[in-house]
Amino acid sequence: MPPKRKSRRPRKSQPVSPEKLRATAKSPPPLVRRKRERALKSQPASAPVGTKKPRGKRRKDGAIPQSNRFFKATRILDESETEYLIEWAEKNPKVGKTYEPSWHPKTCASRELVKEWEMDKDGKEWAAKGIVDEDKYRYKVAWENHPKTGEVFEDTWEPKAFVSKSLVQDWENSLSMRTNAFTSLVREDEASASGEDEGEEAADQGQDDDDEDADDALQHQISQEMLNTPVSTGNRDPIV
């Protein structure tokens, strides 16, 4: 009887640090993105990304096990050679917040999300004023007005992979300047408070000295009056 072979378990894919991913300076026009987002919202919930897992056994109540659910995704935020960073649309029922973006094998991503991601990468560059905010995976970008129509675009959250290095450098420099300015202001306030305390101590010391001088003057006056006042010896004049 041949020996039993050990089953080979598939290796788990390791998340790739966002710092190691290449940066791109391309970002699609906001107008085009809005149309695509409206089109995605009109699609059925089964269209977005889901994790491909073998079918599990149904429970007695007929519900599908939680591990085999397909979770609705919003978009792809970044990619490595083998994985996509996926932004989820569903909320975690335990904390009431949207699930954090996570890395998953490219084979798990739906065609619709991959197609949108490829369109975003190949989209034309769009003029931006700068970065106004950020979170762990995205930058909030302020856009320039439309060059022909003058239309004003609202600020939008963009994947960090789409923002140019020059905008990121300007944003980091502005953050550094704000930090330095705040530190200087705190130091000035501390120095001002310290100076006020020293001034109050000096004023209190001067007041104490004045009080001591007044007491000394009063004691001196009393001593002089006692010296100038004749002292009775207690002897009476003889009766004539």
UniProtKB/TrEMBL annotation:
Composition bias type Polar residues, residue spans: 220-240
Composition bias type Basic residues, residue spans: 1-12
Protein known as: Chromo domain-like protein
Region annotation Disordered: where it falls in the sequence: 1-67, 183-240
Organism the protein comes from: Macrophomina phaseolina (strain MS6) (Charcoal rot fungus)
Annotated Acidic residues bias: 195-216
